[in-house]
């Protein structure tokens, strides 16, 4: 009897499977090939991919095709992101629908809903302790609401990013509950030990993530007699990625979310996924094999979806998450440019860009393949001063002294500081002190306003606009954290919320100030100045094909340590981006500027010509210029 002809959908699936098979099976062979159930796992994974593709809605399949034909869609200069907690921005998911005009007017084409999957009750690490990956946090709405919102955003050309935590689940997750009841199958989903011997041996080389609130990396549960690996908090149980069943479960979840309209999966805490005795258990080689394999699964069954890999680590450790060596072009499509953020704040405090230029020129390639950065100035998290002793020494600084200075400066205790922040996770043993605070507070708006210092407020506003212009032009997708377009201050009310009071990061997680939005017509306020300035920056970015993320970024060094400069290497010519990190005028020789490839002396950011004075380009305090 003749076989029924394959449908077009079946043929498309087969073609995409063929395309990505070389990226998938060799990784899984290496990771799991010796597992006794490996052949069954391979068969089940293929069934999972086929089932997810068959269930994929028609409009998303059309989007798959569009993005296959336009693989650079996420690198284009019309991509600009906005990051927010749903409840703090709009109350509920359905409330977001009422705010879409605001996002459109700002120029947003990428929306990151901060953790929105169903968390455990009580302290949930800001939503990163998930008890059900297939349900939305009931405080925000339902999965049906989520699908309605993603469809509405898609209709406006906006992509949706959500968090998928890969290292751990909440201890209230169904898998964890079964494990706690003694089910051996589900105990193997986690890293559990019968005695403290192995936890003690692992702990010899592990780093504590939250030493103040959650010391150690293991938790003993006398009621079921196990020591459980808990890297972050006691209620977050680390998954056992050496078990192929965990990989299969996560692929099912990943594709389920993709079929609900997710465009970008922010894979959280990826550095910690693979454990090896005698190491920090961070960024082990198997992590990159897992991430390449997960990416291949998306490309087979939901190719409109890209992966953002959350790894806030040193540059040498971060770049492999965008694909290096055998994983080049096959792993994450996006990763946070933590170093750009750290160096921005460092240069602002010192009024010296030498370290910034050294780090960004030395450790980062000019171009990336099938990948780019998520660039940002602030986010929901604290700032850790990720400056190595070696990099500090290269520009004549002491690493420990520089890191201590930055913490003191941004806490606001250093003499002459313009900032007003709060310490986070002070480690007395190492001297490490991280910083919390809103963009506006750290840039000086709050302190200057309290002092009635009009000139200080003006400088602070210019610092903020310089930061937004930096992330809009450096290369990648600029991400604006909710409220940073309005210069929202610190929110000290977190101290009155019991589940937040211990965590100073809530100081920069305020509720959206819609009253301030209503007053944007009063153009003299810091909120209005930053809003209209940010909106202008994103509009000028959209108008510049040269800022496509596929075009290289090359750091150059003017003879003015207060100025940071880089070239965007477009086929149509160079764009020279200049940023004055001081409150003083800076002057660059016209000959040097022209030697960097500038021919027209036109600032594409302001869309005005640049005049030279006595053979020099004059940069006002906190100037940002995109010269073509």
TrEMBL record:
SUPFAM superfamilies: (Trans)glycosidases (SSF51445), Glycosyl hydrolase domain (SSF51011). GO terms for molecular function: amylosucrase activity. Residues 85-524 form the Glycosyl hydrolase family 13 catalytic domain. Transmembrane segments: none annotated. One of its GO terms (biological process) is carbohydrate metabolic process. It holds the Pfam family Alpha-amylase. SMART domains: Aamy. This is DUF3459 domain-containing protein. It comes from Pseudotabrizicola algicola.
């Amino acid at each position: 009897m003749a076989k029924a002809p394959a449908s077009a959908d079946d043929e498309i699936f087969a073609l995409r499977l063929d395309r990505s098979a070389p990226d998938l099976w060799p990784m899984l062979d290496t990771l799991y090939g010796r597992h006794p159930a490996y052949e069954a796992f391979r068969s089940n994974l293929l069934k999972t991919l086929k089932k997810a593709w068959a269930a994929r809605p028609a409009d998303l399949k059309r989007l798959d095709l569009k993005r296959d034909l336009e693989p650079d869609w996420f690198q284009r200069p019309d991509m600009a992101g906005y990051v927010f907690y749903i409840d703090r921005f709009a109350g509920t998911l359905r409330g977001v629908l009422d705010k879409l005009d605001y996002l459109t007017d700002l120029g947003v084409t990428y929306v990151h809903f901060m953790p929105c999957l169903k968390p455990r009750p009580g302290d949930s690490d800001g939503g990163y302790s998930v008890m059900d990956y297939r349900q939305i946090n009931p405080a925000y709405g339902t999965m049906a609401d989520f699908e309605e919102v993603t469809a509405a955003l898609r209709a406006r050309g906006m992509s949706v990013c959500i968090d998928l935590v890969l290292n751990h689940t909440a201890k209230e997750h169904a898998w964890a509950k079964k494990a706690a009841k003694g089910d051996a199958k589900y105990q193997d989903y986690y890293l559990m030990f019968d005695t403290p011997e192995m936890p003690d041996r692992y702990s010899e080389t592990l780093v504590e993530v939250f030493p103040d609130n959650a010391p150690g990396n293991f938790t003993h549960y006398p009621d079921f007699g196990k020591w459980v690996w808990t890297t972050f908090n006691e209620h977050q149980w680390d998954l056992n990625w050496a078990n192929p069943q965990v990989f299969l479960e996560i692929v099912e979840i990943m594709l389920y979310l993709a079929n609900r309209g997710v465009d970008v999966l922010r894979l959280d805490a990826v550095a910690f996924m693979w454990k090896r005795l005698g190491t920090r258990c961070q960024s082990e080689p198997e992590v990159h094999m897992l991430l390449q394999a997960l990416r291949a699964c998306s490309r087979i069954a939901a190719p409109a979806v890209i992966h953002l890999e959350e790894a806030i680590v040193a540059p040498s450790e971060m770049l492999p998450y965008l694909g290096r060596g055998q994983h080049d072009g096959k792993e994450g499509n996006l990763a946070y440019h933590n170093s750009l953020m750290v160096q921005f704040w460092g240069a602002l405090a010192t009024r010296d860009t030498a370290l910034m230029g050294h780090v960004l020129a030395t450790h980062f390639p000019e171009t990336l393949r099938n990948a780019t950065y998520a660039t940002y100035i602030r986010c929901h998290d604290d700032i850790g001063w990720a400056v190595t002793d070696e990099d500090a020494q290269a520009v004549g600084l002491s690493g420990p002294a520089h890191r201590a200075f930055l913490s003191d400066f941004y806490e606001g205790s250093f003499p002459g500081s313009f900032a007003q922040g709060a310490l986070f996770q002070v480690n007395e043993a190492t001297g490490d002190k991280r910083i919390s605070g809103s963009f506006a507070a750290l840039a000086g708006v709050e302190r200057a306003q309290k002092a009635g210092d009009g000139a200080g407020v003006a400088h602070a506003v210019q610092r903020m606009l310089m930061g937004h212009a930096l992330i809009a032009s450096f290369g990648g997708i600029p991400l604006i954290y909710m409220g940073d377009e309005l210069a929202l201050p610190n929110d000290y009310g977190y101290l009155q919320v019991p589940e937040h009071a211990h965590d100073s990061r809530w100081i920069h997680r305020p509720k959206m100030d819609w009253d301030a939005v209503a007053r944007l017509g009063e153009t003299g306020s810091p909120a209005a100045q930053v809003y209209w300035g940010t909106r202008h920056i994103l509009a000028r970015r959209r108008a510049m094909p040269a800022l496509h993320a596929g075009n290289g970024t090359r750091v150059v060094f003017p003879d003015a340590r207060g100025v940071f400069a880089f070239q965007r290497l477009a086929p149509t010519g160079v764009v020279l981006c200049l940023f004055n990190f001081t409150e003083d005028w800076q002057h660059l020789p016209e000959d040097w500027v022209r030697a960097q490839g500038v021919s027209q002396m036109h600032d594409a950011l302001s869309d005005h010509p640049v005049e030279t004075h006595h053979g020099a380009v004059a940069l006002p305090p906190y100037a940002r210029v995109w010269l073509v």
